[in-house]
Amino acid sequence: MNIFEDISSPMTRERPLRVALLGCTGSIGMQTLDVVRMHPDKLRLTALAVNSSCRGLVDAAREFGAAHVAVADESRRNDPILDELPEGCKLGFGRDAVTRLASLPDVDCVLVAVVGEAGIWASHEALRAGKIWAPANKEALVIGGDILMPMAKPGRVLPVDSEHNAIYQCLVGERRHDVRKIWITCSGGPFFGRSRAELADVTAADALAHPTWKMGAKITIDCATLMNKGLEVIEAHHLFDVPIDDVEVLVHRQSKIHSAVEFADGSVKAQLGPSDMRVAIQYALSYPERWESPATHVDWRTSEPLTFAAPDTDAFRCLDLALCAGRTGGTLPCAMNAANEVANEAFRAGRCGFTDVDAIVEGVMDVTNVEPLTSLGQVAEVDSLARAQARELLERLS
Questions:
Q1: Residue 273 has what pLDDT?
Q2: Residue 131 annotated as lining a ligand binding site
C-alpha cells in the first residue's frame, strides 16, 4: 500500500469515531484520554487494554464507558480492583485478548500504544479487519513492516508518532515523485554534545531526564542512546515507501519542528508546534479535520531560537546500527529491536552500562542469520532467539 493514497484521498470517518486504545495507562494512552475528554462528541472509547495496570484500566473504563477491556498480564486475573469494572463490560486476559479488541465490530480505529514488540499482533489484526490503524508503537513497523504495510488499505493508516505524523501533514497535497528527502528531527537527548568516553559512566536516572518530552521509561532511554531515532527512520521507510538513505536525522534541540519534507525543487515543508504529543494524537483521530487542541499554543515572538546539528554517530552508535539493520532488511531489524529491548531494560535495572547497550545490539546483529520476512510466526522466532542471545551477552558483561 502506498500511503500517498491515504493522504490524497482520505476516506470518510465515522463520527463519533469509535476507538480501541491499546496501552491506555502509558504516556501516549494517558494523553489520548485527554484528547477524548476534550472531544466527547467526536470520539468514543469502546475498547481499552493495558499490560498490568488494572487500577488505571478500571478508572478509564468507568470514566469513558468502555464496553470491552483486556489485560495482557494473565497473572492479574484475580486482581480485586477488576470487580469495579462497569456493569456489562467484557474482560479478557492475555495477548490474544488484547489482539481481539482490534477487530471488534464496534471499533472504527485502533490506536496501538503498547510498548515494544508486543504491538505487532494487534496491529496485524487491525489491518486484517480493515480498521483505521493509528500506530504509536514504532516497533511493530520496525520488526514487521514488510508484513504490515502490504495489508494496509487506502485511508486506513494515520501515524501517531510525532515525527511521522508531522511528515504525513507535510505530504498532504503533494506527489510521491516530487519528494527528495525526509528530515526527521531529534532533540539529541540529555547527553547531546558528550563524547563516547563521557557516556561511559552515565546512569539510568541521568538518561531518563529528557530535555523536552515526557515519555515512558523505555522510549526515553531509546532517545538517550539515539536508538529511538534509528527506529523512526525504519518506520518512515515503511510508512512512506522511501529508501533508508532518503531519511536524514536532524538534531533540533528545541523540539518545535517535528519533522520536514524536502522536495525536488529545493522547497522544504515543516510541521511546527508545541512539544506536546496530544497534537499528533488528535490529528490522527481527527484527520482530515482539525480540532481545538488541549495543548498550549506557541508564541513564536518569544520562543527561543531554533538550532540544528548533525547527530554524533561515533558517540551514539545505536543510530548507525539501526540504519544498518534497516538497509539490510529482512529479519535483521527484528533481531536488532529485540536485542535493544533486552539491553534497554538491563540498563534501566543497573545490570549494564550505557555504552553496553549498543555493544549488545551489535553482538546480536553480528550473529543473526538474515532471511526474508514472511510471517508473524517467523517474527516471534527471530525475536525469541535474539533476546536469548542478548541475555547471553549480558551475562558475559557481568
A1: 96
A2: no
